[in-house]
Amino acid sequence: MGWLQRLSEGLTKTRDKVLQSVDRLIGRGPDPEVMEDLETSLISADLGIRTVNRVMDRLRGSRGNGTADGALTILKTTILDTLQSCEAESLSQIIERGPRPFVMLAVGVNGVGKTTTLAKLAQRLAQQGRRPLLVAGDTFRAAAIEQLETWGSRIGVDVIRHRHGADPAAVVFDGLAAAKARGVDVVLIDTAGRLHTKSNLMDELKKVARVLAREVPGAPHEVLLTLDATVGQNALSQAKQFHEAVGVTGIALTKLDGTARGGIVVAIAEELNIPVRLIGVGEGVEDLQDFHAKEFVEALFKRV
User: Fold this and answer.
1) What is the pTM of this model?
2) Which of 63, 195, 225, 234 has CA 20 to 30 A from 208's CA?
């Protein structure tokens, strides 16, 4: 199965919710009840209030809103306009023109798939002929260190680790030293999942960022925030808090295949304008891919 088909299937829950409401427009024009139903569906898909308001304004002002195809065209065009504002270079392109070693810091709350996303990215880089190094900066959970080591062994990528409970900043320091000594291209640093509302944990993350900046000019060169699409608007709150703390430069959105809230990527683009780098629709390595706005919109509204 190709990537676009997997993406389309992953977005089934979100698509079905929206298209059912769009189809109710057939022959009824701007019927208030139908328009309200559509607006509710768009909001519940977490497309974001600003985008939903633009869609509804355009529908009410369009002569084509009496047909499902006309409404769908307006919907797709409006969402594409929003998403293209946060479409940027791929991580591969950024790393290609970046310094050596290129340092990436992975952040996020517990349970979003951060460690797995980082490992999949390391595998992709290795397959592209680069020399990645994984750093187990999540010393809070012993299982996180073991998980990263298991991934490293599986994909043939070295892992720098300390004991459970060690200072994450010390692990990062050693990771950078190893990267310089070994001529590594990309350093991928895992960090402990932390609630964005816990100031002490966010301060710890800032400390890690300071160590990186001191040891490698300009580091971290990418701060990748992993978000779980299933939590909807809460993902937007997480993004805001992490961005304020460490300056998020890119987002990896996971678990799009298990939610009817796939529109959250639109809300993130609308509210924060932080580039969405990666999207995931499954457990396999091939299920994590670069984000492309046009592909996403086509998959989101493709009738099957």
Assistant:
1) 0.90
2) 234
